Amino acid sequence: MKLLDIKNLNLSFKMENGVFPALYDVSLSLNKGEIHALVGESGCGKTMTAMSIIKLLPKNAIITSGEIIYNDTDILKSSDKELRNIRGSKIALIPQDPMTSLNPLYTIGNQLLEIIEKDKSLTKEEMREKCIEVLELVKLPDPKNKLDIYPHELSGGMKQRVIIAMALASKAEIIIADEPTTALDVTIQAQIMKLLNEIKKEFNTSILLITHDLGLVGEYADEISVMYSGRIVENARKDEFFNNTLHPYSKALMGALPANTNDKILKTIDGQPPNLQEEIIGCRFSPRCEDCDITVCQELPCLKEKTPNHFVSCHKV
Amino acid sequence: MKLGKFILKRILQTIPLLVIVSIISFFIIRLSPVDPLAELRLNPSISQETLAKEKARLGLDKPIIVQYGLWAKSFVKGDLGITSNGEKVSVKLIERIPNTLILTLIVIFMTWSVGVPLGILGAIYNKTKLDRILTILSSVGMAIPSFFFAILLLIFAVKTGWFPVGGLTSYDFNDMNFLGKFFDIAHHLVLPVTVLFTLSLAGLQRQMRANMLDVLDSDYIKFARAKGLSENKIIFKHALRNAINPMITLLGFEFAGLLSGAALTEYVFQYPGLGRLILEAVMKSDINLVMASLMIGSIMLVLGNLLADILLLITDPRVRG
Ligand SMILES: Nc1ncnc2c1ncn2[C@@H]1O[C@H](COP(=O)(O)OP(=O)(O)OP(=O)(O)O)[C@@H](O)[C@H]1O
Ligand SMILES: [Mg+2]
């Protein structure tokens, strides 16, 4: 069942020297109780896609067309007040850098309460209990005493747990996890991903997992979308994606996975992704593509269903 | 308890600093070819006896290191020597310090209560008309030379007769009741406060605007927005305190800076403050007074910073550690 449906989202940035598109016709949906992984190199537009969902974009971003359907309404058309009721209540965000995402001047308890006190029916005592309860859920040791400490007294992993606790406190249906583990070290990464996976199972939460780590995707995702230079280039269920990777960019990403490089030398993808202002005729991946064929790739490919529920945007597939 | 220990530690830390400042000031002054007693000798009302006493206190015939030792010893004892008019330096300072404190505190209070809100407005309405107008006004405020502005106001006061010129009190001050005294002082303070306020407002407003812009762009503000908090809560709870914290350090410097920055203004308005005292002392090469003033200046700087650190200790949990 589709809980959230992004349809043909187009987003541009207004800059001094013109207006430049950053997202082209991005379509993406989230099913109830599933993890949808959005994968792609740095700068391809993952965060902009995610932040469009809660309509928190940089001032110079313009959504030129598209809709984001949630509960039969278009989030992009919601008023500020409606948006505030969605943000942090229905749709929670887990930001990339937990180290800097908590306000250094307020205690953990204080910042957690901001979410819990949205429920006006609770008494002070119940709120406090609720705080402790969610901190227990995210396995923060000694939660009672954590309420009165400040963010700088916690490690990065612990902070990320606090942030996840906020998502739980809001009983959000959807969690947007924007590279939730990039800033953490490897052992902590695994713990945090396991925690998110448990939350998905226990509360039937839908998670949009943004990452550039295909390893994580293989382990936890139900569905995968690969993004390149502002477009979704491939979309499939996880098993189908890993067994039958179609797009040359996805293949290259798979090739760069340490597990798939047999000759001990990590394969990389040659070249850089194009920047926003760079004009490229036809397929935006063509300058870096090994299979590129000048005759056909001069035309922009669109996303087509090649096998059932497996979409890819490439002329050569 | 923790706070007491911190303050004590900080005070002890400042002692070496003050010693270094005193050594530098002392040597610069003594190595200049001015005879420290020249002014006193020229003053016919100073007796030979006083002159001899002062000569002995300074140890002028001894090597300069010994002279410094003698100076330091009498400074610690509270004996700062006499001015070229034969008055005690310490008495003179004690008479002026409260005047300067009143002026400085009023100016700081006013610049903060106007500059901080204007800075916040500028940041919230960044790049809008309001922000541009504020930026232009603050540029004008920064560009006017304080000395020139002070003189303009002086002319204005003389022409209109609306404001008293010079001093802190009127000649009949002693006959006034409490309320009268209060208004008399306030009346005398208007012009110097206006000049110093215009002078320091712009900088403060710009600093606050820049801090606020930084904070509004920070991850924790973005996250607070993602939590669905109201705009009021985001600005007044989350952003404001973070933007003000760095200003507190500035406050410490401002406190000391106004002391010297006020000198010209005090001079123009003949305001009986420390700044004017120092300025006049330097012009008359009144060595004892200059030396004492330099020390007071450093002590003010140190105190200002100490005060700022204590405030920061209260407002920023990261400093508490
Ligand atoms: N305010 C802005 N003005 C102009 N361009 C912007 C702005 N914010 C982002 N961009 C550009 O939009 C593109 C997409 O950015 P986005 O943050 O979505 O990338 P991302 O895929 O999340 O990358 P990362 O993995 O580094 O987080 C980037 O090329 C970025 O340079
Ligand atoms: Mg990103």
Outline:
The complex is a heterodimer of chains A (317) and B (321). By secondary structure, chain A is of the alpha/beta class.
Q: Largest interface, per-chain counts?
A: A-B, 27 and 22 residues
Reading off the top of the CATH hierarchy, the class of the largest domain in chain B is best stated as: Mainly Alpha
Strand-and-helix sequence of chain B, N→C?
HHHHHHHHHHHHH
Q: Which structural class is indicated by helix and strand composition of chain B?
A: mainly alpha
**CATH third-tier fold name of the largest domain in chain B:** MetI-like fold
The class by helix and strand makeup of chain A works out as alpha/beta
CATH superfamily of the largest domain in chain A: P-loop containing nucleotide triphosphate hydrolases
**Shape category of chain B:** globular
CATH fold category name of the largest domain in chain A? Rossmann fold
> What about the largest sheet of chain A?
8 strands, mixed
Share of residues in helices of chain B? over 70%
What is the CA-atom radius of gyration of chain A, in angstroms?
21 Å
Please tell me about this protein's structure.
The complex is a heterodimer of chains A (about 325) and B (about 325). With about 325 residues, chain A is α/β, with parallel strands linked by helices. Chain A contains 12 helices and 12 strands. Chain A folds into 2 domains: about 1-90 and about 170-310, Rossmann fold (3-Layer(aba) Sandwich); about 100-170, no CATH class. Chain A has an 8-stranded mixed sheet, with helices on both faces. A 4-stranded antiparallel sheet of chain A has the order 2-1-4-5, with helices on one face. In chain A, helix 4 (about 110-115) crosses helix 5 and helix 7 (about 155-170) runs parallel beside helix 8. The longest helix of chain A has 18 residues, at about 185-205. Chain A is globular. Chain B has about 325 residues and is mostly helical. Chain B has helices at about 1-30, 40, 50-60, 65-75, 90-125, 130-145, 145-160, 180-215, 220-225, 230-270, 275-285, 285-315, 315-320. The interface of A and B includes residues 56 and 93 of A. The structure holds adenosine-5'-triphosphate and magnesium ion. Adenosine-5'-triphosphate binds near residues 22 and 44 of chain A.
